[in-house]
Diacylglycerol kinase family protein
Amino acid sequence: MTVVDLIDTGVVAVVLALALVVVFTLLARERRTTRRLRAVQVPPTAPHLPSTRQRRAAIVVNPTKFSSLDEHALRRRQAYVAAVFRSHGWEDPLWFETTPAEHGRQQAQEAVARGVDLVLAAGGDGTVRAVAEGLTGTSTPMALLPAGTGNLLARNLDVPHTDLAAALDLVFTEEDRRVDVGWLEVDRGPDGERDDGRDGGPERHLFLVMAGLGFDAAMMAGVEDRLKQRLGYGAYVVSGARALWGPQAKVQIAVDDETPTPSRTRAVIVGNCGKLTRQLVLMPDARIDDGVLDAVVLSPRGGIGWGEVAWAIATRDRRGQRRVQHLSGRRFEVRCAEPQEVQLDGDPIGPARRITLSVDPGALLVRCPPLP
Ligand SMILES: Nc1ncnc2c1ncn2[C@@H]1O[C@H](COP(=O)(O)OP(=O)(O)OP(=O)(O)O)[C@@H](O)[C@H]1O
């Protein structure tokens, strides 16, 4: 190992150590202040209004996210939620469970067919994406009951992600906001296996936060479920430390109708919104309702390069520099010389040779606080 390698290794170790300290401190503080799930107090029932049609919500639940609750606790939680709806003059909600084969899209479509006024996605970002696929293009809004590890959409929309009762309150106090939807088309090459549960046509996935390929996707693919349950967000830091050392990828990036530009990169991340945590903002200019997608292209070499990337992100640098390039447009196409891991709102979906990302402006209604 040369002296430069040693310095590089040292810098990476310091950057990672700092990142670990910052992430764990922020998460610990966030948990302390917001974890306490409000006492299960059933609010008083509102006076019955016979003349108007009662509104009704559907709740699409990913049961794996509540597996720590026993049958009794689960029923109490459901009874509490139903009582909250009744107390606001709504009918008892319809409940749908996701399955290993149907992650929420079909359940949301069924809820719309049954005429509900709102569909709540109770799960992580995977459930939120699936429910959004079922609601996009309809006039039925979605609300969030965040129960995942990352809860990236909730973080970006300022929906409480550690207090289900507070998230539920928003249903009755907030308005519907129109947000953009991102679509990712994946070309896996002749040997690739599709991952969207459909048979014909191109493989297509909806995303609401970020999609991309390279380092970040490899990091997410490397997160083991057991570690995620034990460490939560910290599992991503551990996996990130492993993925840091991969080689640069040769890619061609085309934005809208421009000529593709060749690049050697570690990650191309395209965002509908840009926040990873309250403090960590990857794309400071990304807005979920501006009708365009933003992107960052990260091209560090060695530990010093990663240090520059970490600094640019920590300081929310908007201008970009040689290691961190910012782009924006309505359509991105990324072609890779070798297949690269792809991620969607934090979920790895396997390697691909080419991805195309486009925006469908204002295609989804979400009930949430005013958009940041
Ligand atoms: N009934 C079920 N049994 C087993 N697995 C399920 C079931 N329903 C959904 N899943 C799995 O859960 C995944 C979605 O999980 P979730 O909603 O937590 O998103 P996530 O992105 O994994 O969240 P996070 O990583 O933030 O915890 C789906 O992709 C599917 O694989």
